[in-house]
Write a structure and sequence with these properties.
10 strands, alpha+beta, globular
């Protein structure tokens, strides 16, 4: 999916995420950070590199970690940088539109993002991904720089002993910070974020038992109060455009997700993804 495009994610979109996560061709391996494997990749016509992480956790289940990544009430416990997180619109049961803002160290301005998020559980793989969109209901705020997520995603894979977590991001926070500095910082910060999520996840089930235990709408448990997206998908599709940014234009990258090929060299077009429909498509490590 391109920056600016609003529509339900398809099977092909999730297959592309799996391909990026598990294919290492063209990626540059970086030194491990506390047991977290790190890779980077330059993307043609993009100002920032894509970063990929992988780590195994033997003391937490894939489903619990998936819930931690989703649960908006639990996020302030592990995400100390978050200023505000809002559910803006519901597209359908597996896609929504949200707003997120975060604190940045001085002298940098704080950043915010408006993203479409898509998710689902497919066999052993629990997947979440997002990309930036631009909607008139969420204009750029004063004293914030609007960032761009070309593609950010998690694949949390169930294992015999716990789970493996695979994280990729190509994220431009905008502003005037040199991109090579951002790339270096991201390779250090991203593994630390995974460590924070893991630590928080260890206490999640106990916390959840006391905080709306039956409310997990991302898994169809409990009601979802987000208003429905009122516009047609076709009218909101990107035409090589990006959201309005503060002080800096970011070029749309149409090569974020490489094309997939099945064993016979071709991928068939498939309908909008449904819960569990990728059971037979997930690759093996």
């Amino acid at each position: 999916m391109q920056v600016g495009e609003i529509r339900p994610a398809t099977v092909d979109d999730f297959k592309q995420l799996l391909d990026i996560v598990f294919s290492h061709e063209g990626w540059e391996s970086k030194p491990n950070k506390g047991g977290v494997k790190v890779w980077t990749k330059s993307i043609p016509s993009s100002p920032v590199k894509m970063i990929k992480l992988a780590v195994d956790f033997d003391d937490i289940t894939a489903l619990t970690l998936y819930d931690v990544l989703h649960d908006p009430d639990f996020r302030p416990i592990w995400d100390e940088s978050m200023i505000e997180g809002l559910d803006v619109y519901k597209i359908d049961d597996f896609n929504d539109i949200g707003y997120y803002s975060l604190r940045c160290p001085r002298p940098l301005k704080n950043r915010d993002f408006v993203n479409q998020r898509s998710w689902g559980i497919f066999g052993d793989d629990h997947m979440i991904m997002n990309h930036t969109i631009d909607i008139e209901e969420m204009p750029v705020k004063k004293d914030f720089v609007r960032g761009v997520s070309y593609l950010t995603g998690y694949v949390v894979r169930r294992t015999d002993t716990g789970c493996s977590v695979h994280y990729i991001t190509q994220n431009d926070p905008g502003g005037q910070v040199p991109k090579f500095i951002l790339d270096k910082i991201s390779c250090v910060i991203a593994p630390k974020v995974l460590e924070k999520i893991h630590k928080a996840a260890l206490g999640y089930e106990e916390w959840k038992s006391k905080n709306k235990p039956n409310h997990r709408p991302w898994r169809g448990l409990g009601s979802d109060s987000k208003p429905l997206w009122p516009k047609s998908y076709q009218s909101c599709k990107a035409s090589n455009s990006t959201p309005t940014l503060d002080t800096e234009k970011v070029t749309t990258n149409t090569d974020v997700a490489p094309s997939l090929a099945s064993q016979n060299g071709r991928v068939e077009s498939e309908p909008t993804v449904q819960y569990g429909s990728l059971d037979s498509l997930a690759p093996t490590l």
